[in-house]
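Example S7 (structure tokens).
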């Protein structure tokens, strides 16, 4: 959810003070990275899973406050809308059975929450976009009651000078809509994957993460429908990018794939945050500069698909990690953990290869690959290793899976877990069935409504059968 705010009304002085503190904190982080003062601890990993609350008719249920009181677990927090919640996991050292431990923790947390929701006549759905959500559901009345979300909405509209947010997505169908708030963002839920960056390798890991985005979003796509329209395999991508756009000038887009690879370290990204993006939430604190309060708050209002984060080890040593945001929620927990394993292995192999990540492709090719993969999923064709376009499903089998296996071996992940999770990725590529293709195939075969398809989806979601094996 991000940092909560103490107030929502800001003045010119607030912006001036915030900007000054942001400049100093950005310089401090750069000095930490350059002088090797960041964490030397082993690589660790984590996740955030966003989910939907639905009623008995499988429509969005705006009751997350009542639900969180009932579930009573600090690892579950509210999201932008009253019908979304977020599940968090404790970080695990990324070696041995680390991925399995995350899997078990999420399974137990999810089952407790699912049972609690059922006792309240609700269902939990992990899916990128709820097929039954309507445009009218995405309104201020359904915004979660936090000052952060209220302020964010006000500041985005202030920068837009009162102009409506326009949504225009062309896929199999075309969808156009206008909103005078940021609630369109609430239609997109994700499985955000975190990895702590090894010291001195921030640039290579960040660039590798961008390259990994295309095969990852293609194999994980699970958001083909919005408001009953058949759009992209992963419609979250254009939806989120347009939902919080703050204007028509350069660097106005707060959700972005970026404009280049970085050359040295992750502090370059934080410098860009300060130099290129207007401050949205100028909440000032008097805590020590080493807490980086202003830098982290500014970073939390720029939703790069590959976003660097600052955190602290248990002993107080600062570290940098990456948040990979391209993966949708669902379809099952084991599918989510397979996506995480694929990412951890792929980014590790790319970052540690003798051919540095940014030498494998021009940035613009990497960006084009990402959007092609988001639109067409496993049917996409992308350029790899400076060659002509090739089918994504075949590249996953021939190139990306062997790389992911190599990376997981470098991390010394248990062999049984490597095969367990990567076999799921392989199965999706072989069957050409991820969450998006299953949804489309089910609707086509049965002439199903969005409610009927979602009902079948939630039943299968709870079986923990990987989506590539789901029947039609």
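Recovered sequence:
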């Amino acid at each position: 959810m991000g940092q909560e705010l103490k107030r929502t009304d800001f003045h010119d002085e607030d912006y001036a003070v915030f900007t000054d503190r942001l400049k100093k904190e950005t310089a401090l982080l750069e000095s930490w990275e350059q002088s090797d003062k960041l964490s030397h601890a082993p690589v660790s990993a984590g996740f955030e899973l966003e989910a939907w609350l639905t009623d008995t008719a499988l429509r969005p249920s705006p009751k997350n406050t009542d639900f969180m009181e009932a579930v009573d677990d600090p690892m579950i927090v509210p999201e932008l809308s009253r019908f979304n919640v977020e599940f968090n996991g404790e970080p695990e050292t990324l070696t041995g059975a680390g991925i399995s431990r995350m899997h078990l923790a999420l399974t137990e947390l999810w089952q407790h929450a699912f049972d609690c929701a059922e006792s309240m006549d609700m269902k939990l759905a992990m899916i990128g976009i709820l097929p039954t959500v309507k445009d009218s559901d995405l309104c201020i009345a359904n915004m979660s009651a936090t000052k952060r979300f209220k302020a964010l909405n006000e500041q985005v509209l202030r920068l837009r000078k009162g102009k409506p947010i326009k949504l225009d997505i062309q896929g199999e169908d075309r969808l156009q809509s206008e909103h005078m708030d940021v609630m369109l963002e609430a239609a997109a839920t994700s499985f955000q994957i975190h990895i702590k960056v090894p010291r001195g390798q921030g640039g290579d890991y960040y660039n590798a993460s961008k390259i990994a985005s295309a095969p990852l979003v293609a194999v994980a796509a699970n958001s083909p429908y919005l408001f009953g329209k058949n759009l992209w395999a992963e419609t979250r991508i254009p939806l989120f990018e347009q939902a919080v756009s703050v204007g028509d000038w350069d660097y106005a887009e707060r959700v972005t794939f970026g404009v280049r690879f970085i050359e040295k370290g992750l502090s370059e990204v934080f410098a860009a945050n300060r130099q290129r993006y207007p401050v949205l939430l100028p909440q000032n604190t008097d805590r020590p500069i080493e807490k980086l309060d202003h830098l982290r708050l500014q970073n939390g209002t720029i939703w790069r698909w590959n976003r660097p984060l600052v955190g602290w080890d248990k002993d107080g040593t600062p570290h940098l990690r990456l948040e990979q945001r391209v993966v949708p929620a669902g379809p099952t927990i084991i599918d989510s953990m397979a996506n995480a394993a694929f990412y951890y292995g792929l980014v590790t192999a790319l970052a540690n290869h003798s051919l540095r990540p940014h030498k494998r492709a021009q940035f613009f090719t990497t960006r084009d690959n990402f959007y092609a993969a988001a639109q067409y999923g496993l049917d996409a064709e992308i350029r790899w290793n400076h060659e002509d376009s090739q089918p994504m499903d075949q590249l996953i089998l021939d190139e990306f899976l062997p790389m992911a296996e190599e990376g997981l071996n470098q991390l010394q992940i248990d062999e049984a877990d490597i095969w367990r999770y990567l076999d799921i990725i392989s199965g999706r590529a072989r069957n050409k069935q991820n969450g998006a293709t299953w949804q489309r195939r089910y609707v086509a075969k049965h002439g199903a409504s969005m409610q009927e398809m979602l009902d079948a989806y939630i039943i299968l979601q709870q079986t923990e059968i990987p989506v590539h094996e789901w029947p039609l």
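Notes on this example. Residues 232 and 375 are 4 Å apart (CA to CA).
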